[in-house]
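Chapter review: from sequence to fold.
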Amino acid sequence: MLSQRIIHFIELEVVFECNDGIDCECGGVQARTLHTSFQKTPSIFGPVNSQKQATMWRAIVEDYSKLDLTYVRDRLPALSGLAHAFEERHSKLESPGRYLAGLWESTFKDDLAWFYHIPARNQSGEYVAPTWSWAGSMASKLASSKPPEEHLFGITSMNTEIDSADEMRQLKSATLCLHGHLVEVRWERRNQFSYATMITHPPDLELITLGNLEEEEESSTGAHCASSFHDIHIDYDFGVPGPDCIPEEETLYVFALGITYYKSMRCLVLRRTANSGANVFQRVGFAEMFCKLVQNTPTTDLTII
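The token string follows.
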């Protein structure tokens, strides 16, 4: 994406590719079809208006998330060249704002609604990015949800501590302070590929079930729940032994992000941290459900790291 041309070193020769076409040493590649992703990749140098900025950056990080980097700490530094070029190119139209752990300030609220199709946790022990950023997960096949029609939360502060002179490279830490609707939930494993979360507080809320279910099921109370849930994407397998393991009896939380055109609610699934304070959380998933009851709960201040 940063380069305007690519050289492919294949078994018998070298193939040159750019925006204008493809050529090779033998001259025969033009008679064949060479399937590459170069021509499908969004160019940050071509003409663009301010409305397409967010869509372009999401496409960039979705493609980038499919790469298998040798060192996990390179996840943000390896993207910093593109981030600098993106900022320079688009600042001439409308500045994307501060760069915060792989997200841009101008679209920050919308870009919190990401999820991965193949969940995985960073098990290297090295700090890469906060859990609210897509870069904090070692999962693959990133996807971004469409922006909601209405946001249900406010941002109090966004802070990053960098590990180099370049603010777009390695981070030491990052915190996100929010104000909005937070509700306790519990979760249960339905099967190897399916989880459910159930709202348990306040007690007068109706039971809401969420899950990656391929067919309609009944909840543990016997109530039909097919119309109550929509989707939940976990950031990693909760049941894998280790410090990130979440037992089924542990309380989790959902934090409302916004309401979509179809009146579904997008939420972050959070886990309270053990040693960082009462209202400090880590993100562990993303959910979408059809329930207006969450937004009727009192609002609170919280921090996500």
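Two observations follow directly from the output. The first helix runs from residue 53 to 64. The radius of gyration is 21 Å.
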